[in-house]
Amino acid sequence: VESDKLYMVLEYVSLGEILSHVEGTDTYRRMRYKSKVKGLTPGGYFDEDNAALYFVDIMHGLAYLHR
User: Fold this and answer.
1) Which of 27, 50, 52, 66 has the greatest number of CB atoms lying within 10 Å of its CB?
2) Residue 32, CB-side half-sphere exposure with 13 Å CA sphere
3) Does the reported pTM lie above 0.70?
4) pLDDT tens for each residue of the chain, 67 residues long
5) Residues 13-32, buried b or exposed e (16+ Cβ, 10 A)?
């Protein structure tokens, strides 16, 4: 059955979204739960090792979709 709809099923993340949009800017930052999330710099960004893990997960997802 063909359809022009795309559904995304995401798992529940208890600490909320990864990044929040900063109003009035074109940037996103980690706003809440900074102390509970491992791998963040003092500015609220992910350090290189943790950012690389997210990147690899996204690439695996895209590779799966393009099979």
Assistant:
1) 50
2) 7
3) no
4) 678 887 877 777 666 666 777 788 877 776 665 556 677 777 767 889 988 988 898 899 889 988 8
5) eeeeeeeeeeeeeeeeebee
